Structures are given as C-alpha cells and as structure tokens.
C-alpha cells in the first residue's frame, strides 16, 4: 500500500480526526424492575363458607375491611377476622347506607342463614352458650304409627 492510498483512506474514515475509538467489550447492564422485594403476606380467606371453626380460628386476613365482622366473630387491629364461638362460617351481604357490605359470621348449625332473624327465631346462643333444653326431640310416650 502506498503512502498516497493510506492518506486517502485515512481521510475517508470518520475516526481519523478523533484518533482511536475504544469499543465496549461488555454489554451495558440495565436496571432491574422487580428485584426481589418483600415476601408475600399470605392474605385472604382462610376458612370458607360451611367450614367448622373453633374460638380463635382465623377466618379472613385482610388489609382494610373488605369483610366486616358479623355474629360471633371479632376483628383484630390488623383487620383479621377471627371466630369467638364454635360453629360454621357463613358469608353474607347486607344493605349498608347506599350500597352493600360483605359480612362474616359464625352459626351453630351447618346451612343456617345469616343475618339471623332473632325476633322470629330467637337467639341461638345466650352469653356465648348453647341452650340444650330445647324441644327438638320427639315427645316421650308418643308412639309412631
């Protein structure tokens, strides 16, 4: 290659005025969007409708009051709803102001409906106890035909 061809070739190159240009040997590292974070809090419904609970069982873990406490349940300071009496879990909606609210309650017998009409049916529990002196069994001395 002659001197003249080298000069012409150098004049055509865009890097001739800048000198040598260094190129990257590694790819550029981007930012990470979902980088670990904190572990999940395991929120949600723990006991579903018609499942049996004992006092202290957690029914719903939630942030805020998606579900409100009904009969025989209470709400903790972190909005956890838990049972205060043995029975079966029932979820129900009730009219509240202009909309509806979702409630959670505990009933004594499976399949019982909440909210309980205490004026017609009476109370199911007194002071958290169950009345065992009800006349649900057939009368003594009556024979079936």
Would you give an account of this structure?
This protein has helices at residues 3-12, 118-121, and strands spanning 44-45, 52-53, 58-61, 67-69, 73-75, 81-83, 87-96, 99-107, 125-126, 129-130. The protein has 145 residues and is mostly beta strands. It has a four-stranded antiparallel sheet, with no helix packed on it. A four-stranded mixed sheet has the order 2-7-8-4, with no helix packed on it. It has a two-stranded antiparallel sheet with strand order 9-10. A hairpin with a 2-residue loop joins strand 9 and strand 10. The chain is rod-shaped, with a radius of gyration of 36 Å. It starts with a helix and ends in a 15-residue tail after the last strand. This is Large ribosomal subunit protein bL27m. Pfam families: Ribosomal_L27.
Per DSSP, the total helix count is: 2
Low-confidence stretches: none
Described by strand count, sense and barrel closure, the largest sheet is: 4 strands, antiparallel
Q: Give the structural class.
A: mainly beta
Could you write a compact summary of the structure shown?
The protein has 145 residues and is mostly beta strands. Helix content is 10%, strand content 28%. It contains two helices and ten strands; from the N terminus they run H-E-E-E-E-E-E-E-E-H-E-E.
Keywords:
four-stranded mixed sheet, four-stranded antiparallel sheet, single chain, 145 residues, 2 helices, mainly beta
